[in-house]
Amino acid sequence: MNLEEKLKSIRFRLFAILLISTMLIIFVIVIVNNLVLKTFYTYSKAKEAKKINDELNRYYNSVIQYNINSELRQLETKNDMEILIRDNYDEIVYCENKAIIGYVSRISIDKNAKTIYSDKNTIIKQSDERNDKFMMLISNLDNGYKLYIRIPIIPIEESVKISSEALIIIGIFMAVVSGIVASIISKKVTQRIVKLNDITKKMSKLDFSEKFEENGINDDEIDTLGRNINIMSEKLESTIGQLRKNNNQLEKDIEEKSKIDDMRKQFISDVSHELKTPIALIQGYAEGLAENVNTDDESRKFYAEVIIDESNKMDKMVKELLELMKLEQGELQIKDEEFDLNEIIKEEIKRETKVIKENNIEIDYEKNKKIKVYANPELIEKIVNNYLTNAIKHCKMKDKEKKIEIRTEKTRENKLRLFVYNTGDKIDEDAQEKIWNRFYKVDSSRNRDDGGTGIGLAIVKAIMNKYNNEFGINNYKNGVEFYCDMNIK
Q1: Which of 98, 232, 246, 326 has the fewest CB within 10 Å, making it most exposed?
Q2: Rg of the chain in Å (alpha carbons)
Q3: Which domain holds residue 366?
């Protein structure tokens, strides 16, 4: 695999996503640390200063007073701050560090000092001089005393700088670790996908020998996809094997009948033409699976289902062509008997009930009438099935009516005619003869999506020719009627 293919691989993309995500998180943490930590520290110190202000108010308002100086010293040491208290006569009541007196004087005349908190008795200002940044709480206590609390800000800026540097170092270490972890995870995740890709490549070459083996640990989507590909492989192998078997038999039968060489040539021409589309579909979707065109499980399953569906259509088409050939050559052994035609009609309607209801088609036929005919039941069933399914496919709404009508009529002493009528478009006169030829299309609406093989009416023609009976089409104002004759015993 060259460099370009590696860069396009799922493994590399997964590795890149994991690594970039980790680095992005670390970057965000560093940014937040620089932007928020200082503000949070300032807020915390201001809150602590207001708390001391409230404590001193309670102390001076209390009846019982004690020596609070030791507690104030502890607060100064613990919170890295300086406290100054003056009485009503501006005399110093408490001051441990005389330097605060100068800071009080300086901030009172500093026009650039900004107020970060203010209420009726308390104000907190911040001085942002380059080398000596601090906050100053100035409060009038309830007893008239003045309270000053100075909190230096420079230490927090140093802490932010140190913590940011530490986070960067930790981030570099984490990026290296996450890169290793991402590489391991991406390899583990994509290993089975690569295996599936290799299997589908072989399948596209009709090699079904290799199967996907589940890891037995996690029953995840990849395992499900692997099972589906295994099922598809088995069905494809079986279907293509059956197709080969049928084709071999077909070729053998054709070769043995040299007297119908012209028919054989036409037959091969028709088969090659009609199988070209499904084979191209199978090849295209198999290559799509092999090249991982769609990476999600649902799309892969859809590709597999299309391949299986097209294989089944090819199998059905070949079988029907074999049957048609035997009918046309007179090789099919037929055993006639007397039976009720209406029973076959009812069974075929029952089989197509779902499609009839979905298309809102009305069916009109004589349900309880017994119609005795003398023929081969299986061949007559094919005729009824082809006429009925053909009527369903082409049934359309005409004059607010969408229906199929099935009826019978005795035409001669020993003949019964079956009629199947559907509302819809007429069939042109020049197409009425051609429609009985295999694979002939009247118009674009008769396409392979409707599930037909294009051989049904050709089979009807062959059966009718075998019995020397009449068949054909009648056009009406709002529809088309197919008919055929059957023998009466």
Answers
A1: 98
A2: 46
A3: 337-487
Question: Cα torsion at 102, 103, 109, 115 (round to 10°)?
Answer: -170
Identify whether 35 is part of a domain.
yes
Same domain, 152 and 245: no
pLDDT digits (tens, 9 = 90+) for 158-193: 777 777 777 778 777 877 777 777 777 767 766 777
Percent of the chain with pLDDT over 90: 17
Residue 444 has pLDDT above 50, yes or no: no
Q: Containing H/E element for 289?
A: helix 261-290
Residues with Cβ within 8 Å of 50's Cβ and at least 6 positions away in sequence, in order, are 117, 122, 124, 137
Read off the tokens for 346: 């009812």
User: How many residues are recorded in the chain?
Assistant: 489
Rounded Cα gap, residues 69 and 174, in angstroms:
49
Q: Quote the number of domains for the chain.
A: 3
195 part of a folded domain:
no
pLDDT at 89 over 70: yes
Alpha carbon separation from 38 to 155, 158, 167, 327 (Å, rounded): 10, 10, 16, 94
pLDDT at 445 over 50: no
What residues contact residue 279 under an 8 Å CB cut-off, 6+ apart?
Answer: 314
Is there a domain that residue 415 lies in?
yes
- What pLDDT is stored for residue 279 in this prediction? 73
CA 166 to chain centre: 44
Identify which of 403, 374, 404 has the alpha carbon closest to the alpha carbon of residue 387.
404
pLDDT of residue 447: 46
Angstrom CA distances, 408 to 142, 231, 345, 381, stand at: 115, 47, 11, 15
**Cα separation, 388 vs 342, whole angstroms:** 13
